[in-house]
C-alpha cells in the first residue's frame, strides 16, 4: 500500500474526532460576528450570545433525554466527571461508601482516589474478559451507606458497552446516585437518562465530531435529585457549578455535533460495524494468533481491539507510522510504556494484554482505506515475525 505524498489514514477516532465541517460552519459566526458575553443579558450582543447557548443546551439535552436546566457546560468531559464525582460525594457526607470499576478513564479514577484520601471507602468492581461489569456484582457491593456509583457507558480502549440501565436501576433502588461517562457513546446513539436510571453524566464534544475544549455535565433535577457541592467558585455561571465566561463558539459546536449525531449516528454506526467486521475477517484469515478484545456484540461501532501473538504494538505502530495513525494503548496515556489498566483488568499481566492495539475508523474513513490498512498490517506482522524468528 503506497502512501507516498499522502497523509497517514486516521484510525484513532476513539482518541479524538475531526470537527465536522457542518459543526465548524455553525461555530464560525460566534468567533467574530456574535461575540458578546452570554452573561451580559442587558444588551443586544449579550442576548444574541445567550440565545446561541440556550439553543445548544436544548440540543445537548435532547440527545440524552434531559431537561435543559439539567445541562451544565464545562471545559471538558474530564472537568464534568470531576464536578460530578467530587461534588456528589461531598454533598452526601453521611454516605461514605462509593463504587466504581477497574476500567474507568483516569478522569473518573483520579477523583475517586482523591475521595479515598479524604476518608471515603471506594469499592472497585472487577470486569470479565470482555470488559463487562456483572450487575450481580454491583448489587452485592451495594450498602446502606453507598452514595455514588460510577460506571462508564462505553470503554475507549476495547469498545465494550455496559448495561447502563440495569446498573443504574440497582444504584437507584439502593438510594445511591448513578454517574456514567458518556464520552464514547454519544456519537453513535441517543441516551434516555430517565429510562436508563442515570442521575449524573459526563459528555464530550471532541469525541462526537465537535470541537475540543468543551464538555457538559448532566445533573438530574428530578427525583432522585443529584445534589452537587460546589467545587468551582467565581461569577456563578452554570448554576454556580462551573463559574467562568462561557465559550460560546465551542458550546454552539458541541450542540450542533450532537444534533448531527442524533440524526445520523445509528446509520453511520451500522456502516462502521460492517467495516470493522470486514477488517477483522481480513486480518484473521491472513494471520494466526489473532485475538479479538472486548465484547463481540455489546460494543460501540468503530472500535477494533486486537492482540497478535509475537508482535509488540509499539513496533507495529513504528513500522506503520506512515500508513495509518492508530493506538497501542489508552487514548489519554502519557509517554510511559506500560500495560493499560483496562487490559490488565481484563486479562491480567499476560501477553494478550501487552500485545493489544486499537484501530478506530470514523465518519470519513472509507472501506477502501480500511482494507488497504488491513493488508499493510498483515505485511508488517509477517515481517516482524520473520525478524523475531
TrEMBL record:
Its cofactor is pyridoxal 5'-phosphate. It catalyses: (sulfur carrier)-H + L-cysteine = (sulfur carrier)-SH + L-alanine. It comes from the Bacteria. Keywords: Iron, Iron-sulfur, Metal-binding, Pyridoxal phosphate, Transferase. GO terms for molecular function: cysteine desulfurase activity; iron-sulfur cluster binding; metal ion binding. It holds the Pfam family Aminotran_5. Residues 9-367 form the Aminotransferase class V domain. Its EC number is 2.8.1.7. The keyword Iron applies. InterPro entries: Aminotrans_V_dom, Aminotrans_V_PyrdxlP_BS, Cysteine_dSase, PyrdxlP-dep_Trfase, PyrdxlP-dep_Trfase_major, PyrdxlP-dep_Trfase_small. It is an enzyme of class 2 (transferase). Belongs to the class-V pyridoxal-phosphate-dependent aminotransferase family. NifS/IscS subfamily. Catalyzes the removal of elemental sulfur atoms from cysteine to produce alanine. Seems to participate in the biosynthesis of the nitrogenase metalloclusters by providing the inorganic sulfur required for the Fe-S core formation. This is Cysteine desulfurase. The lineage of its organism: Bacteria, Pseudomonadati, Pseudomonadota, Alphaproteobacteria, Sphingomonadales.
Amino acid at each position: 500500500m503506497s502512501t507516498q505524498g499522502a497523509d497517514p489514514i486516521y484510525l484513532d477516532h476513539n482518541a479524538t474526532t475531526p470537527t465536522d465541517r457542518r459543526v465548524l460552519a455553525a461555530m464560525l459566526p460566534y468567533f467574530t460576528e456574535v461575540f458578546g458575553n452570554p452573561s451580559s443579558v442587558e444588551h443586544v450582543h449579550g442576548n444574541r450570545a445567550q440565545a446561541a447557548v440556550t439553543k445548544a443546551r436544548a440540543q445537548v439535552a435532547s440527545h440524552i433525554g434531559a431537561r435543559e436546566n439539567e445541562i451544565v457546560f464545562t471545559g471538558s468531559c474530564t472537568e464534568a466527571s470531576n464536578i460530578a464525582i467530587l461534588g456528589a460525594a461531598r454533598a452526601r457526607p453521611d454516605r461514605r461508601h462509593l463504587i466504581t470499576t477497574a476500567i474507568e478513564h483516569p478522569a473518573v479514577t483520579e477523583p475517586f482516589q482523591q475521595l479515598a484520601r479524604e476518608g471515603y471507602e471506594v469499592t472497585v468492581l472487577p470486569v470479565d474478559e470482555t470488559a463487562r461489569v456483572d450487575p450481580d456484582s454491583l448489587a452485592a457491593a451495594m450498602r446502606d451507606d453507598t452514595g455514588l456509583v460510577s460506571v462508564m457507558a462505553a470503554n475507549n480502549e476495547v469498545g465494550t458497552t455496559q448495561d447502563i440501565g440495569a446498573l443504574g436501576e440497582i444504584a437507584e433502588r439502593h438510594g445511591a446516585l448513578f454517574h456514567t461517562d458518556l464520552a464514547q457513546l454519544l456519537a453513535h446513539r441517543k441516551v434516555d437518562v430517565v429510562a436508563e436510571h442515570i442521575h449524573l453524566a459526563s459528555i464530550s464534544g471532541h469525541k462526537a465530531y465537535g470541537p475540543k475544549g468543551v464538555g457538559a455535565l448532566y445533573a438530574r433535577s428530578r427525583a432522585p435529585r443529584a445534589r452537587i457541592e460546589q467545587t468551582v467558585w467565581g461569577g456563578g455561571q452554570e448554576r454556580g457549578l462551573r463559574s467562568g465566561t462561557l465559550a460560546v463558539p465551542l458550546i454552539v459546536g458541541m450542540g450542533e455535533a450532537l444534533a448531527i449525531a442524533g440524526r445520523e449516528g445509528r446509520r453511520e454506526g451500522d456502516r462502521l460495524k460492517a467495516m470493522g467486521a470486514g477488517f477483522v475477517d481480513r486480518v484473521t484469515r491472513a494471520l494466526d494468533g489473532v485475538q479479538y478484545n472486548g465484547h463481540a456484540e455489546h460494543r460501540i461501532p468503530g472500535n477494533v481491539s486486537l492482540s497478535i501473538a509475537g508482535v509488540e504494538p509499539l513496533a507495529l505502530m513504528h513500522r506503520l507510522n506512515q500508513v495509518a495513525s492508530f493506538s497501542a494503548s489508552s487514548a489519554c496515556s502519557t509517554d510511559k510504556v506500560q500495560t493499560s489498566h483496562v487490559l490488565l483488568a481484563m486479562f491480567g499481566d499476560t501477553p494478550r494484554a501487552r500485545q493489544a492495539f486499537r484501530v478506530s475508523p470514523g465518519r470519513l474513513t472509507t472501506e477502501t482505506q480500511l482494507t488497504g490498512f488491513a493488508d499493510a498490517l498483515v505485511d508488517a506482522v509477517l515481517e516482524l515475525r520473520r525478524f523475531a524468528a
